[in-house]
Amino acid sequence: MNDIIEKARDAVAEALAFRFPQYPVRFEQVGDETNMLGVGVFAVPPADFAEVQDYIFDLEAAGVLPDGWELLPLVRDPATTLKHYPEILDNWSAPVRHDIVPQDTPVLVADSQKRQAEKVAEAELIAP
Amino acid sequence: MANPFQNKSDSYWTEGVACADVGCWNSAAHILYYAVFQAVYGYAEMNGSLQKYLEPVWDATLGIRRKPTKHEAARKIVDHWKGARNAQSRAFKKLYAARIKADYKTDDVADYEVSAYISDAKALREYFINLKPPLGNRGML
Predict the structure, then answer these.
(1) Shortest CA distance from B76: residue in chain A
(2) CATH of residue B55
(3) CB-nearest partner of A33 from B69, B90, B110
(4) Complex confidence, ipTM
(5) Is B58's pLDDT higher than 80?
(6) Measuring CA to CA, how many Å separate A92 from each of A21, A97, A109, B1?
(7) By the CB < 8 Å criterion, does A11 face chain B?
């Protein structure tokens, strides 16, 4: 991936982590489009879909990408994330923010962290 | 002169709404997106501006000369007429996102990813179906 696009991706990811720290983000291919970054945002409650999509379009309008490049939000709800993209949640933990603490940590993230902790405990039990 | 894609766009729209009515959201996303796309594409073809939007452009980021896709051209045309922050422009892009999910991703399109934008998409489609080309460009087809 080109350095300029790599930096743009970092900027988009950083902005999303600041605005929506509770949701994991992953970049995706969009069909055959070579100059479009698909922004996968996961475990988003349906009520927040439009807000997340509009924020991503606002980032594009603000010129976060090089000329001619576009962002496309690909947002998934918690059930879809768990069913089709469980790997996204496996190593996910929301970035630590001291200025804004999320009041309602999504259940899925909490479950994922619990599963991770259980796996570690299990491994420790098995280890000699 | 009528939009050359009017009949096809009309029937796609009717089929897309029928899919939405019975809860087939993958099909609805795909068909409704194309109903709007055809209206936009037809307008650009009718007024002779389509080639301008499809001309290869220099992509400094990739260091190549790149031909825009027809979908990219349609988004540019919509942004040109409605503005990038307009609700109808965004509805078109959100339908495109739903259509990408429907066609290329393993997960299904949910009802709220389409139903919330049907009204704006309908208005946008009708806008381009009814939009008349500038006088100088009429009769180019």
Answers:
(1) A68
(2) 1.20.120.330
(3) B69
(4) 0.89
(5) yes
(6) 11, 15, 7, 56
(7) no
